[in-house]
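Ticket reopened. Same input as before:
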Amino acid sequence: MTANVTAETLAAPQEVGHPRAGVPAVRVQQVSQVFERDRPPVLDRVDLTVRPGEFVCLLGASGCGKSTLLNIIAGLTEPTSGTVEVSARRPALMFQEPALLPWLTAAGNVELALRARGVGRAERREEALRLLALVNLEGAGDKRVHELSGGMRQRVALARSLAQDSSVLLMDEPFAALDAITRDVLHLELARVWAEQGLSVVFVTHNVREAVRLGQRVLLMGSRPGRVVREWQVDLPQPRTIESPGVGALAAEITTELHREISRHGR
Amino acid sequence: MAASPVRTDARAGGTRDVEAGLDALDSAPTLPSRPGAGQRFVRIVLPPVVFLAAVVGIWQLAYVAEVKPSYALPSPADVFDVFWSSLTDGSAFEAVWTSLRRGGVGFALSLVIGTALGLAMWWSRWLRAAVGPIVSGLQSLPSVAWVPAAIIWFGLSNAAIYTVVLLGAVPSIANGLLGGLKQVPPLFDRVGRVLGLSTLGRTRHVLLPAALPGYLGGLRQGWAFAWRSLMAAELITYSPQLGQGLGQLLNVGRELSQMSLVITSIALILAVGIAIELLVFAPIERRVLTRRGLTIG
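Engineering reply: fixed in the latest deploy. New output:
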């Protein structure tokens, strides 16, 4: 496994981790979403561009429309107005819940994604096991969902997303329900997979430190109407952890801004 | 990301160790080992046997005390004699086989019709609104109420019997499937859409498997209703041309005022019900629930 990773990393195109210019991975233009006519729009003319290979975190309080925006990018929800372009055929989406199908094994869940993509029966099993190994779950292929811990389930969900072979990965608070230790480890895991696979990631969270620890860019969303109010470029060196001093300092700055944004609604 | 491949690799190794430790600590413990044959006998077989023995004991006491005249309350030994001779002359097997075949055919037909109806009600909101209340209502209508109508339509025939069985079982199966489909978490459907499955693919790989526990519940209830309806129908549609099922055996006992035969028939009807439950539905349900981690055993 270790040797394989090295080989693949070396063989991967050089743009890995280095966003190249050209067609954006995701381009959201003037997207608005109105659910109820008399209330402020959930999303108000949101613009967002994600470069290929970029890791962007969408940060905001509950109810700011960040999940709605993600669903719109995923094509699950039609926006009221505006346009969305995604360079991938179909972006992969990870939910806060692992959302694994409990009647299938870990490998079976990954295989379903391969099947949906049209991968032949003969190759599915092997490819599913390879993807599970990629998230350090070799040997867990035949396990039932209920036999896996929360962290393992979320890694199977990540393997299933990778099975979609999409260059764009959307993540909707995928680690919010996990304990802090498991979350830290999954941050490492995700950062590694992102770098290896050259993915473009849009990561939604309400955890400021998580956003700073993972993202190359952090976008703060305001609520009612939901829109991007500020953005930060995160120039801290990789690898970093949630405890890195730079992460703490920037997180403090963003938190102040976030609190100011939230306080607007109490007045 | 300035991390070199080697660096990435080393970090991956670190993650691997921590993850392996977390996985080991955090995983659900493996299922407790299956109890041995002796333990299973004591826990599963012994209690009902003891209970049955107690019932027969009380029955014997009531017989000795002559609570009722002996034509109305025969002794356990008398009933056992009738039961034994019905086994040795083969009449019990014939009756059980005749009823079981009718029940099986009737249930198979109900399965096809009930499943189609349940799916149709799921797909068509209009149909659900139109026939949903009636299908639910039919579940609480004792299907013996259909017997007179069935006899008027089809005479004393197997067709009349099947009609009653179908009207008893189809609503349960259709409702069970519909209930199962309604309880499928919307998240599963979103997963299917994110993965890019077509409507047909989502139905086959996500919706139907997710609805299976509810559907199985419906099938189980459907069988119980089919079996009950069959007994009611056989009891009333008595004709020399028809094969003699358990319900008809019951009727013979009544006409001859032979309580031993009546009790024998009831015991046989009950035995078939218990056997189907234990040999067919319980194992399937256990299998499905265990795979999904939905049972505590």
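Residues 1-12 of chain B have pLDDT under 50 and may be disordered. The CA atoms of residues 83 and 89 of chain B lie 10 Å apart. Please confirm and we'll close it.
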